[in-house]
Automatic annotation (TrEMBL):
Family: Belongs to the cytochrome b561 family.
PANTHER family per the UniProt record, alphabetical: CYTOCHROME B561, CYTOCHROME B561 HOMOLOG 1
One biological process term in Gene Ontology: respiratory electron transport chain
Organism the protein comes from: Pandoraea horticolens
Record-given protein name: Cytochrome B561
InterPro entries per UniProt: Cyt_b561_bac/Ni-Hgenase, Cytochrome_b561_oxidase, Di-haem_cyt_TM
Amino acid sequence: MDNAIKFRPSGSRLSSAERYAPPAIFFHWAIALLVVIAYAAVIAKGYLPKGSAPRALSMTIHEWAGVAVLVLAVPRLLWRMIKGAPALLPGQGRLVRASSAAVHLLLYLFLFAQPVLGYLTLNAGGHVLTLPGLDVALPQFIGKDAEVGRSIKDIHETIGSAFYWVIGLHALAALWHHYFRRDDTLRRML
Ligand code: HEM
Ligand code: HEM
């Protein structure tokens, strides 16, 4: 069967033209981990008592994980634009091609928009991010404004809630390719 031919038993190697290059794989998984940390920290914050040190620490972890996402997203996008991605595996129908392209585009937008909105939420709230251990404050891009801050925070939270689903769909699609379609889509990102 067509699909069975494309699934290779473990131990066989994909050619370098068929798989993502090592830097792309590093960016993918490092950023995925940081996004998970940002989500986990802000969820944990919700369970911790108001005004407590662990709650403040959760928020600091959230903010720095989010800033790190943005910092890595820049070289990641540059790499992607310059080097491109491996051609899609043969046998992917039009629906799979269109939906994966749309979801990947949304994920790239998210990696830039979400940290920027989070950062601006802080700025508008009059809070400054300071490099740990060094008394160096990151720049403020907008001034303190409670109303603007509330609006940006609402957008940041709405996008945050929506992307549980987008990221979940993306991860499920990868598992679907691997376990049900039995093709090499997941293996080329490993
Ligand atoms: C990929 C990166 C990020 C993700 C996935 C993310 C996700 C979220 C989510 C889901 C919430 C809502 C939590 C809730 O409903 O209680 C939230 C809140 C928030 N985030 Fe982010 N965020 C990211 C980056 C950032 C960055 C870079 C900053 C600031 C430097 C930031 C600052 C905030 C702030 C101030 C809140 C409001 C917390 C509160 O007062 O309840 N976020 N974020
Ligand atoms: C926060 C989490 C994640 C984000 C932001 C993310 C983002 C992305 C993006 C933007 C791409 C497109 C890469 C490109 O062509 O330049 C991609 C590809 C991919 N991702 Fe993720 N990803 C995440 C988590 C995951 C997880 C958990 C899995 C597996 C279970 C996964 C599996 C894959 C695979 C297999 C590809 C390659 C798809 C293909 O060959 O067409 N990702 N991811």
